[in-house]
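Possible regression after last week's pipeline update?

I re-ran a chain I had predicted before the update to compare outputs. Posting the input and the new output here so someone can diff against the archived version. Not blocking, just want to make sure nothing changed silently.
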Amino acid sequence: MNKVWILLFWTFASLAQIPEPPRLIVRGDDMGYSHSGNLALIQSSLQGIQTSIEVIVPSPWFPEAVQLLQQHPNIDVGIHLALTSEWDKVKWRPLTEAKSLRDSDGYFFPMVYANKNYPGAAIVENKFSLADIEVEFRAQIELAKKKIPRISHISAHMGCSRINDEVNQLTKKLAKEYHLIFENTLYPFERASYDGPKETSAQKIDSFINMLRNLQAGKTYCFVDHPGLDDAELRAISHVGYEGVAVDRQGVTDVFTSQKVKDAIEALGIKLISYRDLGPLP
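New output (post-update):
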């Protein structure tokens, strides 16, 4: 009997020493900016490895995004808080009056930070109001929660929550108030990125797999990119400095749906998770 207990003890002790596998959130951003993006994001979740979708609430294709997400209730969704409208040929405006966040045509400014291709057209180059940002963020959160009640977290489009410490603290406050996770402030994780060239789909796939090989046991990571389709709509969407949007974002869809990538994740024992898998808020 003693031998049995000793054997069980060492078995459990050995199991206790086995490290947890790497955990990886695969996040697809910008749902709502185009029909093409909406379709690619859904495809990347249903047929691929994507575990979370970020929705831009004031974007032009938000109503379709809501409809698609309602049809697929198991997809984890986050609010991609937005204060910019960066594309040259498709624009969106604040949900609120937010005069300090609008350009001369009433749209969001195209950039958060100063950009040589858009002089004077960044939020930080204009006298934005923290009060306007709070009212706008609240409107985006409340509309998202109304239309997609399962929203689990907040992220920031083009890093708009990091304009300064005041905006960052405001975003944290709103996340707590609305019971949402804010990026990785409550559940620390590391950002993962391509390890190698990423000009073509094939390069992206290989560089993504290289990244997977470097993930460490017991750690949680988040990989972020923007799925799309190489079609007529997305070929018409660009801004100065980012002209090859359709090809670039089709490459992301190819990565997220790649069987080669799926096989690598299985072989490496990586556990795919979403934000809501991080557990209840403290």
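Follow-up from reviewer: compared with the archived run. The domain at 21-278 is CATH 3.20.20.370 (TIM Barrel). Marking as no regression found.
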